[in-house]
């Protein structure tokens, strides 16, 4: 007993306690719900069996039923457009801003910090702001587009099925750009300045330096930011709830919003779980890319 | 001899700070020039101005006869070896070497051949496939030099390239760089804060302080006839002893203020009674039999290196003596020391200029 106690205080026992505690926490708070979600996607769940743990096993019936529904493929397509559009927008604008602030003019770091304001705001607030901007009759976006002659009539961004998804993408790009910019700025700052001087003396112009020094040196940062972007956009829920609620007629619905809608509004928990499981596969893929790209960091 | 690099009336300001003051320097093709001076003397600024990494505020900068004041670095055809080596970490040694060729659009096969040739002369043949992080300090140094050599530039610039190496490797690389310079018939400008590096490697040494060239010339010229007290103290190791002195009544002797006033003879005529500073190199002070010397000095600290003994006196103005005879000396002894009149440097007390 005394030996066990001293081992826990200072020895292998202590190490085991240190490992066991976070592992236990993770299993209880993240692992179990995840596994239960997977289990639920293979069960028949209705209002009467909600309270029970073991329900009738139905195999892949939920999956086949899901893909038999007419809205499934369009929603998966919307999700792909949302993810690719958001990541592309956030990354390109974020990288552009990071390069801009890299010039380091007076006040650059201060202004860069100010950009984070958009990122720290709650999604619902961002949604409310964009509701005003996107408003069909008096929104400032329509005003600018009309005044600059790009459109002739008002676009009803949130209620027109052709535009509703892009309305949310715009808001999401605005929300995520600052985070991209900060991570990319950190990546840029970690490139030693003398590499650029050496490349300049070796005859490279600004464009060549960007392609041969900046981009390769940023590879791990870029891999990490795109993987994180995939995770964050697949988590984006608030903006859909605030701006379009997935409508009209599912034209701006995406898997993460649909899963919630099925489970908690239509009480079809099995289908909701099934969509979540499909999303887990994608997120796991992104997580692996993220871990790998941060592990293979290039150091001089 | 053609002038490869010419600087005339070059000034550089950083805001109000005057970093380079009216620099006049001309470097002939094939010479090895060392810029030496204490930190902040402007030697690195001067080198970076040659490279084009800094723009000069006024004056003319010519490379191979062409005015280069506003030419960007990539068009100056100059190669630089950085203190940190600045190797591209994401490229192999071969890619590092061929970078400048690839930028210029040299065909791959040709670039590869050039890299192999250069690697053979610098002993990197076995390492072409490695990344910089897999190399030792000395190997990185060689890659940095090879990257410069492969371009056949108009001039090589070295920015303290040996300061990250250990002492033994530094002495070895010193010879290697000089040998490479001779083999290539290159024009090199080498910045260092180590006067021994400057003296051993260069044909022409430029001593700088506070943005001013204090003196320039062949290494031995600087050693034998330093233009002022600063150069005299900077060149030579251990450093020259400076002691206050007064010219005697006859104008041909010097009353030197070490311990009790002692008199040394001069080989030239000076104004009697003038207050000056006498500069005595430690290696020019020799032990003599008692009564034969010009100095009688009490011994303070004795340091033995084996090849030589460093003796520091316990006088008010400390004097260091380097003695190669192995005569036993210990703290508290009184020694008799002599110096040849020709070896006495005399500087003005106020201006520090050589008299």
Automatic annotation (TrEMBL), chain A:
Topology in membrane: Multi-pass membrane protein
A Pfam family recorded for this sequence: BPD_transp_1
Keyword Plastid applies: no
InterPro entries registered for this protein in UniProt: MetI-like, MetI-like_sf
Bilayer-spanning residue ranges: 12-36, 80-102, 114-133, 163-189, 210-232, 269-291
SUPFAM superfamilies named in the record: MetI-like
Keywords noted in UniProt: Cell membrane, Membrane, Sugar transport, Transmembrane, Transmembrane helix, Transport
Localisation per UniProt entry: Cell membrane
Record-linked Gene3D superfamilies: MetI-like
Keyword Iron in record: no
Domain ABC transmembrane type-1: 76-290
Protein name, as recorded: Multiple sugar transport system permease protein
From TrEMBL, chain B:
UniProt similarity note: Belongs to the ABC transporter superfamily.
Superkingdom of origin organism: Bacteria
Membrane topology designation: Peripheral membrane protein
UniProt keywords, alphabetically: ATP-binding, Cell inner membrane, Cell membrane, Membrane, Nucleotide-binding, Sugar transport, Transport
Subcellular location(s) of the protein: Cell inner membrane
Annotated GO MF terms: ATP binding
Protein name per Swiss-Prot or TrEMBL: Multiple sugar transport system ATP-binding protein
Organism: Rhizobium herbae
Main location, first listed in the record: membrane
InterPro entries: AAA+_ATPase, ABC_transporter-like_ATP-bd, ABC_transporter-like_CS, ABC_transpr_MalK/UgpC-like, Mo/tungstate-bd_C_term_dom, NA-bd_OB-fold, OB_MalK-like, P-loop_NTPase
Pfam families linked to this entry: ABC_tran, OB_MalK
Location of the ABC transporter domain: 5-235
UniProt lineage: Bacteria, Pseudomonadati, Pseudomonadota, Alphaproteobacteria, Hyphomicrobiales
The UniProt record lists the keyword Transport: yes
């Amino acid at each position: 007993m005394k030996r066990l106690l001293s081992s826990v205080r200072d020895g292998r026992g202590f190490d085991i306690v240190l490992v066991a505690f976070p592992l236990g926490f993770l299993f209880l708070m993240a692992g179990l719900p995840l596994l239960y979600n997977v289990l639920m996607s293979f069960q028949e769940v209705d209002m009467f069996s909600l309270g029970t743990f073991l329900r009738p096993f139905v195999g892949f019936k939920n999956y086949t039923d899901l893909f038999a529904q007419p809205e499934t493929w369009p929603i998966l397509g919307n999700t792909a457009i949302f993810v690719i559009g958001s990541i592309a927008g956030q990354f390109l604008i974020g990288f552009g801003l990071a390069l801009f602030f890299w010039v380091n003019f007076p006040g650059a770091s201060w202004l860069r910090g100010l950009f984070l304001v958009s990122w720290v705001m709650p999604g619902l607030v961002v949604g409310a702001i964009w509701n005003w901007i996107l408003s069909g009759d008096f929104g400032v976006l329509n005003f600018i587009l009309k005044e600059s002659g790009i459109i002739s009539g008002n676009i009803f961004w949130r209620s027109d099925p052709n535009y509703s998804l892009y309305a949310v993408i715009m808001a999401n790009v605005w929300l995520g750009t600052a985070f991209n910019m900060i991570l990319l700025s950190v990546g840029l700052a970690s490139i030693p300045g003398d590499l650029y001087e050496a490349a300049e003396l070796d005859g490279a112009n600004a464009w060549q330096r960007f392609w041969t020094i900046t981009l390769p040196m940023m590879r791990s940062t870029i891999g990490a930011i795109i993987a994180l972007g995939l995770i964050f956009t697949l988590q984006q829920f608030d903006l859909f709830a605030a701006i379009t609620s997935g409508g009209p007629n599912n034209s701006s619905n995406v898997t993460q919003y649909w899963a919630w809608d099925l489970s908690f509004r239509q009480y079809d928990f099995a289908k909701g779980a099934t969509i979540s499981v499909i999303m887990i596969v994608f997120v796991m893929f992104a997580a692996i890319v993220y871990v790998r790209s941060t592990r293979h960091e290039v150091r001089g | 001899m053609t002038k490869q690099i010419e600087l005339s009336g070059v000034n550089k300001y950083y805001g109000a700070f005057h970093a380079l003051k009216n620099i006049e320097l001309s470097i002939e093709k094939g010479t090895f020039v060392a810029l030496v001076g204490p930190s902040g003397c402007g030697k690195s600024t001067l080198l970076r101005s040659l490279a084009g990494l800094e723009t000069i505020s006024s004056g003319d900068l010519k490379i191979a006869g062409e005015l280069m004041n506003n030419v960007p670095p990539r068009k100056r055809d100059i190669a630089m070896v950085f203190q940190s080596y600045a190797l591209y970490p994401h490229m192999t040694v071969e890619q590092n070497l061929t970078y400048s060729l690839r930028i210029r659009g040299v065909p791959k096969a040709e670039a590869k051949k050039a890299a192999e040739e250069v690697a053979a002369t610098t002993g990197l043949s076995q390492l072409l496939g490695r990344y910089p992080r897999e190399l030792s300090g000395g190997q990185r140094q060689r890659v940095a030099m090879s990257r410069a050599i492969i371009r056949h530039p108009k001039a090589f610039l070295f920015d303290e390239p040996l300061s990250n190496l250990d002492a033994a490797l530094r002495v070895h690389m010193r010879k290697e760089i000089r040998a490479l310079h001779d083999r290539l018939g290159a024009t090199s400008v080498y910045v260092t804060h180590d006067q021994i590096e400057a003296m051993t490697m260069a044909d022409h040494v430029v001593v700088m302080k506070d943005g001013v060239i204090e003196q320039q010339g062949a290494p031995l010229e600087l050693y034998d006839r330093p233009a002022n007290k600063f150069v005299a103290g900077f060149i030579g190791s251990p450093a020259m002893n400076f002691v206050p002195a007064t010219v005697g009544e006859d104008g041909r002797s010097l009353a030197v203020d070490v311990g009790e006033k002692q008199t040394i003879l001069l080989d030239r005529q000076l104004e009697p009674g003038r207050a000056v500073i006498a500069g005595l190199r430690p290696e020019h002070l020799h032990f003599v039999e008692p009564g034969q010397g010009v100095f009688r000095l009490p011994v303070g600290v004795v340091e033995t290196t084996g090849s030589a003994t460093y003796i520091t006196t316990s006088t008010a103005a400390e004097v260091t003596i380097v003695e190669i005879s192995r005569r036993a000396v210990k703290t508290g002894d009184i020694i008799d020391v002599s110096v040849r009149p020709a070896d006495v440097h005399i500087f003005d007390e106020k201006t520090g200029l050589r008299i």
